[in-house]
Every structure is written in structure tokens, then in C-alpha cells.
Write a structure and sequence with these properties.
By secondary structure, this protein is α+β, with helices and mostly antiparallel strands. The protein is built from seven helices and twelve strands. The protein has a twelve-stranded mixed β-sheet. A hairpin with a 2-residue loop joins strand 1 and strand 2. The chain is globular and about 55 Å long.
Length: about 325
Amino acid sequence: MWNRLPSRNACNHGLPRRLVRRAWLVISVCCLSGNGCFADEEGLLPPSSAESPSYSPASREIATQVLHRCLLDAVWGKPAICDLRQTTRMYSKSRVGFGKFVRVGQGSGKLRLSLQVPAGDQMSSLIQISDGELLSTIVSIGKHSMRSQVDLGKVRERLSITSQSLHNPTVAMYLAIGGQAELLRRLIQQYQWLDISEGQLGQQKVWWLKGQRTEEPLDDGSQAQVDLRLHDASAEMLPTQASVAIGHTESAMPFWLYQVEQWSLPKPQDKVKLRVVTEWDAPTVLTSQQLDPEWFRLAAGDNLQLQETREETKLYLPPLGSAATSEGNSVRY
């Protein structure tokens, strides 16, 4: 979802103020889905990014396996809730979006994500809600609201779901629609994950992964239209570098996606400096009794003032004849 990117001309100091305000939310939407138009914020690059060290094949393989386990947990794991925070630095200014994310997991597809982003003298918002059958995303910028939706049932109809699917990252990619899971779906396919190391993020022990954008689609990745678009002509607008923090097996939430940082290496022609950090903070496992069914239903007010609705199911349909739509896919973790 949210695969429409701002044009390169949108990154321009000469924009009217109303379009600059809109850009903050567009960037937030794109980053949560793994897309965006980025340039480096001068002086913020980590020291290691100034060089191009060689990474061992073993590091690459382990980093990819950890990401796959993280994706499997996002789709099939336990219900959880967390704080969502996104810090965007653009035009030498910082904006912080804040919200909540809750997932039911267990392959249900149920989730609720809310993000509020201050934009000038008004608050813009992103709301994403799925009852397990229909996922709706509502982006509100001032008086304008747009809704997009995906029929999850039609996606599942294309898949061959067996007990082995619980361990199959390709099947998980097709089911990863919306929220944290879709961000992982895109990160796995947008980047080569070159290195992994143990470290800390606050009080949590995590794996730190380093990624560099790839122009080649994965052989064992998902092949829906939304995935193929990750490598089309507009991909040049995507960030070239990423750093991800994932919960270590010794942390309170193993394989939880705690943080994603995205940026591009500086180029002489870049005039706009932009860097985005998305944090899925303070995750807490929920019991079935703590899950309120109303969280996963669109309220009457959520449909008010909608000026545009987009049907995006076809973008997420697994192609007929793919490995995930037939029995016997053997990729396991």
C-alpha cells in the first residue's frame, strides 16, 4: 500500500507552504511502507557509512535469516501493541509524528495503526485499520482525505496455506499487508542486507542490520505488482541505505522490529536534506481478552469527508502459478 511516491520536483525549497506541509505526511506514509524520496542530512551519517567495507557471505546470510524470522513473527506472532514514533528531518527542521500500532497476528491480518504528523498550523493523520477481511488506509491532510483498501480475502484465495506456511517467508510476504509487516516485506526486497552485529538499543539487546539498496528483485521474493514496482523507474527516488534494529533472542521481544532508519548517501546536486527514523517502541504482548474488537473496525467518523477512494487489491494478488500458490514450497526457518 502507499506506493505512490512524491515526484522529485516535490523536493524543492520553492514549494508553496501548503505543499511543504503536505510533504511531511507524504514522507511519513512512504517511510512506513518502505518507500520515500530521501537525501542525507549533513553530518548525521554514521561513521561506517563513509567507507565501503567488504561483508562476508555468512554475515549476509545471517542478516537475511534474521529479517525473515522478524517477518514471520510480524505475520504469525502473538498479539502486540506498541508506541509508534517517526522523526523526519527536512529543510534543517525536525518533525515528530506519534501514534500507536496494534496487531492481532497469528495470520489474521487484523491490525490498527494511527499516526499524527504536525504540519504547519494543522495536524495531519494516517489511519490504517484491518478487520482481517478488508484493510483500509485513510490519509487526511487538512480538509482532504483519501482512502485506499485491499481485500485480504482475495489475496488469501490465491495462496496455498498449509502448516509449512508458518515457516515460509515468501508466503509471509504475500500476507504482509499493512502496518509493520508490510514495511518488513518491502525492506527485505528493497535492500541487500550486508552485515549484522549484536548491540543495544536503549535497554534492549538487539541485532543491528545494515542494508544497501538493490536494483534486482529477489528470486524467492513475492511477485505481486506492488513488489515489482519496488524496482521500476521510480525506484531511483528510494533511499540507498538502511539500518534496522531487531530484537535479539535475549531481549524482551525476540525478532521485534524496533527501529528503521533510512537515508541516502550525499550527492552534490542534492539540495534537500532528509533523514527518517521510524520507531516501534515499548512493545507489549496482549492476551486475547485484552483485544477490543472495536479497534479493528472503521468508526463512522473515519469515513467522513472522504474525497477519493482507491481499490488496490489487484496490486497485492499473488500471480497464478507462483510457488506460493501451489503446494510444496520448501523454504523454511
